[in-house]
Amino acid sequence: MRKRSASSAAVAAATVLALALTACSSKAEDDNPGGGNGGGGDAGDGESLATGPGVTDDTIALGALTDMTGPYATLGVSITQAQQLYVKQVNEEGGICERDLELTTRDHGYDASQAISAYNELEPNVLAYTQFIGSPFVTAVKDQVDSTDHAVIVAQAWTAALLGSEYIHMVGSTYDVETINAIDFLVDEKGLSEGDTIGHVYFEGDYGENALEGARYAAEELGLSISEQQIKPTDEDMTAQVGTLAREGVSAIIVSAGPRQAASVAGVAAAAGLNVPIIGNNSAFAPQLLATDAAPALLNEFYIAAPTLPIGSDEEGPSSLAEAYLEEYPDATLDNGVVAGWNAARLVADALRIACDDNDLTREGVAAAMQELNDYDNAFGIVHDFSDPANPSSLESFILTPDADTPGGLVVEREAFVSELAESFPRE
């Protein structure tokens, strides 16, 4: 296996500014467009280029399955617009493998039937997916992807149930590991100790339940107790759940849910006088919340565990992306969905470049290329390894906290780290 690596400076320039993108010299030159039946043409080095679904002589079709109208609407819009910007920049620099990228988007509104229907609609016509929001939905198609479809998916979902697939990838740690790191932060820096109880408000389904697995593991190892409060994605008023946690005297709260639920937890806790640290998984915050009545609570002892630097960081990767994004979308709100979308699109594109070099633009060729990215620095603070499908690309997490004066609303509270418990956590 060839080792693929890059310095942060080089990646930042190539990734964010898209000034160093180089097209592969392997455009098919025969009369067959090389679409869905695995045809091919002559690559630039004289070898035949294998192609598959979504690839013609002129284009590479990609899919995006997002949520622009459901509980993750704010993040879904940012993720999608960042990916559209990335595709635009790639095409302006000559495309990949002398082909333009085409991104087709479907909004499933975080509804299971719509999500699966949208996946099946696009599946015959795309080479890969730059996003699929929703752990339950990606998990639902996993067997189909692994057994027959073989299209690479970069999921906007971090459940451990997706590990083990050659085709489904996540940028960062899984929810269980992220939650373990979050509890480590609470113990090391917020004074939690043996005998304390942590409240855990979590979505039913793969997201929340995988986060709960990490919480249970950390609690058992550290002598803590967990007060479990399961909710549905449609639940937005957390009064009952927080009331229970207050009666149980919790010393901290974990939120494995969406931004609206996290804001409700923080606001209700503050109103009830439950002044304890609250920490959410990576998708539990949106900066738009800082313009609501929940802002004072969110600006006081509220944290997010995340697999990336925030968009408001002054590091080269985030700052350059923020500038390019606002230039393209001047009325948009910056949030970490911009980072997540950009990094996922760029990951797919880098795998396509390797597959082009290997003369194999089939789905299987892209999947094999993805596993060559084993020292992958995307210029957003954490180096990733996609070589082993059985493991997350990283075990590290940043701890972020809201800041109303920072673009994107988040700043780094604790630099990227991996706790000893996360390193020892058993993964099947």
TrEMBL record:
Belongs to the leucine-binding protein family. Residues 1-28 form the signal peptide. Residues 28-53 are annotated as: Disordered. Keywords: Signal. Residues 59-386 form the Leucine-binding protein domain. InterPro entries: Leu-bd, Peripla_BP_I. Residues 33-43 have a biased composition (Gly residues). Pfam families: Peripla_BP_6. This is ABC transporter substrate-binding protein. PROSITE patterns: PROKAR_LIPOPROTEIN. The keyword Acyltransferase does not apply.
